[in-house]
Every structure is written in structure tokens, then in C-alpha cells.
Amino acid sequence: MTASKAEWAPLTDEERKAVNAYYAKPVKQVFTADENVCLWANGTWCFKSSIEEYSWMSDDYAVITPDSQEFQDLIHAEHS
Prior knowledge:
The protein is an alpha+beta fold. It has a domain of 42 residues. It is 28% helix and 11% strand. The chain is built from two helices and three strands, in the order αβββα. A three-stranded antiparallel β-sheet has the order 2-1-3, with no helix packed on it. Strand 1 and strand 2 form a beta hairpin. It is elongated, with a radius of gyration of 21 Å.
């Protein structure tokens, strides 16, 4: 049986605050990568597999490999 709209009581102010607080919490993403990153001079970057989505960017980008310190610095700066 599905609940109809009339069966749901509106949230109290306290409940609404609790819901908003729950969804406002930042989510810490665990990040691992094993593919190359394309990095433009302006700091924009993407994974090599997503390069087609950046067709508006120039083709003047550096390819950073996952085993490089630059890659680690970039990823950790982005997700810390």
C-alpha cells in the first residue's frame, strides 16, 4: 500500500533543521585514481577518459601520470 500525500504530516521546525543539517554536512570522498589527468595552465583538470567533455578548452594541456608527485598534489589539494 502506498501512502497518499494526505497521510504525511508536515515537518516540524526541529525536524526540518535536523534534515537540513544532515544534508549540509560535507562528504569526504575517498579518492583513488589509476588513470592520467589532463591539466591546463589555468588549473582546470580532468581525467584523460573525460577529455571529450572539455572540447571547449585548448589542446595545450599537460598529461600527468598517477605515479607522479604533481598528480598526488593535485588530487589531494582538490579533495582535502
